[in-house]
Amino acid sequence: MKLFENKFKQSLQSNVALLDKIMYYIIKRKGKQMRPMFVFLSAKLFGEIEEKTYRAAAMIELLHTATLVHDDVIDEANFRRGFFSINALWKNKIAVLVGDFLLSKGLLLAVKHKEFNLLEIMSKAVQEMSEGELLQIEKARKLDITEKVYFDIIRRKTATLIAACCASGANSVGQNKKMTEKMWRFGENAGIAFQIKDDLFDYTESPIIGKPTGIDIRERKMTLPLIYTLKAVNPKLKNYIINIVKNHHHNEKKVAEVIKLVKENGGEEYAKMKMKEYHKKAINILNDFENNDINKALRLLLEYVINRKK
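Below the sequence we write its predicted structure tokens.
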């Protein structure tokens, strides 16, 4: 990971002073770097890491960072991981261009080394993520997201990138299309479990504020615990909850009431059950491989996905 960080910094270099300043800011506030870990562990499952693996991890991280920068513009968010977002510091126009720059850097990395399989994996991820975001925006207006549509959205929006990590890791060490697709499925299941865990944070006590956050409800996002609850309750209570989410989502007491209703009607428990289902699907794929240290490390990473505190 240390070697990767150096290579990733090199891939961000530019001859434009403003870009270099923003890239330095991005590197300084990097997150958990879970996605590069998925790339490296997926590669090591089949053999030794090669130079191509570092490029695959850099491409993933460039793509991921680009989507975060663009997401903050879309969501009009001023903070990311406790730091000011790019759009908060340099405004939307520059943030969009920075996202475009990061995306182009990732694609050029593949083209420069004629790694067209990696390029195909990345391009598929970009397409799926864009479609997922647009599908969510389209459905969120009516608050009529079914469970089937919800899973389609999170598969595209979140799981696709983790799937691309695992597929590109396998591809980087010479694995064939069949094995690359298998690792894509592994990453997809891990990614769906990851997103459901994210959704559950709305209903879990935050160690900082000592109560559930309710952020998704305030942003009128339809997540699995809420979708299940709306299906489980009677029509009168369903309309009451929808009215709060639509018209009273900034009222702290009303949001707390929705959280309480979701918990009482099994929404939180149902989401936990579905998260464990996808976690198990990912584990079942790992069962096909030799139970060595790398396999164990991937299992630990999956445990982290569903047990993390933030």
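Strands lie at 79-80, 83-84.
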